Amino acid sequence: MKIVALIARILLGLIFLVFGLNGFVGFIPMPPLPGVAGAFLGALVSSHYLYLVCGVQLVAAVLVLINRFVPLALAMLAPVIANILTYHATMQPIGWPLALFTTALWVILMWRYRAYFTSLFVQKAVGN
Q1: Other C-beta atoms lying within 10 Å of the C-beta of residue 98
Q2: The pTM is what?
């Protein structure tokens, strides 16, 4: 399981490093998208919200790749992956394979680091 987690960690980190950098540098050409998908991505770009998303992806990718603060990086990537899945489910189904592959890598790592997330699942927290 350690080797599987290592491979998943490296692949997940590389995927988000490449796509996070692409949001700033734009080295992967994107043809104009028709319909709702194009309008959605256009809104992300024109509002500069895409920089926040890509910044989160970059920071999390670096943390995953250098094997530091991996549970934090996984927590940072959770909403990004949820949005990727929602985008492909509702607007651009052609991207499903990479979205599902990325989700599978994230689930493998989440399972490996599950002990660090157990405190989040407390039914009734006691405050000070």
Answers
A1: 13
A2: 0.93
First-to-last alpha carbon distance for the chain, in angstroms, is 39
> pLDDT at position 126, please?
84
Whether 60 and 76 have beta carbons less than 8 Å apart is answered as yes
pLDDT digits (tens, 9 = 90+) for 69-126: 999 999 999 999 999 999 999 999 999 999 999 999 999 999 999 999 998 888 888 8
pLDDT above 70: residue 128:
no
Which amino acid type is present at position 11?
L
Q: What angle do CA 111, 89, 95 make, to 5 degrees?
A: 80
Query: How many other C-beta atoms lie within 10 A of the C-beta of residue 4?
Result: 13
**Element containing residue 84 per DSSP (H, E):** helix 70-90
What φ, ψ does residue 65 adopt, rounded to 5°?
-70, -35
Q: Looking up tokens 């530091």, which residue turns up?
A: 68
Q: b/e string for 64-94 if b means 16 or more Cβ within 10 A?
A: bbeeeebbebbbbbeebbeebbebbeebbee
Rg of the chain over CA atoms, in angstroms?
16
